[in-house]
Amino acid sequence: MDTDRFTQVSDTTWRIEPQGKMRVPAIIYADEGLIHAMDDKVYIQASNVACLPGIVGASYAMPDAHWGYGFPIGGVAAFDPEDGVVSAGGVGFDISCGVRTLHTGLQRKHIDAVKNRLADALYHTIPAGLGSTGHIHLNDKQMDEMLSGGAQWAVDKGYGEPRDLERIEEQGRMPLARPLEVSQHAKKRQRDEMGTLGSGNHYLELQEVIEIYDPGTAVMFGVNTGDIVVSIHCGSRGLGHQIGTEFLRSMALSASEYGIELPDRELACAPIQSTLGKRYLGAMRAAINCALANRQIITHLTRQVFAEILPEAQLDLLYDVSHNTCKLEEHIVNDKARQLYVHRKGATRAFGPGHTDLPKALQKIGQPVLIGGSMGTASYILAGNEQNEALSFASACHGAGRSMSRRKAYKTWYGRQIIDELAERGIIIRSPSSRGVAEEAPGAYKNVAAVVAATERAGLARKVARLRPMVCIKG
Q1: Is residue 268 included in any domain, yes or no?
Q2: Active-site entry in 233, 323, 355, 398
């Protein structure tokens, strides 16, 4: 990307001044290498978001930003409740996709001898891949209860423990969900998909903590060098995708009725106070509950596998946080507290120390920010900073971010080649799709270390620990 069009605020902050129909500036957080490597569409999309009615502060893009549907992936934007809009494209198709990390209480010496057995058992227990289905089949009543109850519903059904809920965003249940706004087609797609990973960049990984950057925070998070953790990355599966598809169409068709000029049809949105806006928010919140329940069930299945192979393991939850949502949050704007609808699309909520929405055990230190890698690269645990409230509505990156399309990656690598290369490095891959592995090749992503370093230097979050993959169950 050509940086001549930016005002460089710092070595990691690039500002697009308001021009044309932009109501606010657009700000991209990246170091010089990352911003030069970004697709020009990030500039265009971040600027387009800044044109939407009721936007507050600025349109933001995180260091892992790349082209998306309407909003850039890595995009953050907040809107006034009265005159602002909600955008299905600003949340994305995989509603409430997120990362959950579990302690095991084990170290490599406990894992090495049974690593292949663990990989096989997890692969056979937790369905993965396009259209994958599990052993849970929900009728209409159960579906609506799940969409209202989220992880709390899952725990009530025996999939986990009540104490898990303390470490889940929204305590495991998104309020004000409206299952009636979810179409029968969306529900049908999800009926047999609970407890499954899906395809694309979704995974379950066994990871070893190999470096600690902030010992004090690491102690509070309960992570130490050599620890083995389990990370789960997935979302609302077919239900969320169907909700996104249906409401994007409705919003695009209705934009003119609301007097909204769209700089890009993919930015389809509706006034928050409109009937359509309220319907979408109700359906989206139901999809958030679906994702939270899904990750809770996968946690239960993971615990079952460990109980059989490594019964001494204690799979306690570190944290669960989403990175594709729109939520009503309180933020300080011009020294005043305001309620805002914050869209995060491929961006992680990163509340800093003192935030009352965090569990008491984490309020002094800040929220765990879980950053996924890409099969063969590191993942990271970060922590939210107080200053990121003013910088990004308390948001941070969510992963490495793609640098290559899936189509190009598939033409560049063979799945078997990737699996063999990673096996030589001690990383076991289990996947039903050779094509899926090729599309998600580590080389198709940006340098996650550079993304995380830029995130920290920009003040969005601070590094706590680096994790190395050992086993990856891939869709």
Answers
A1: yes
A2: 398
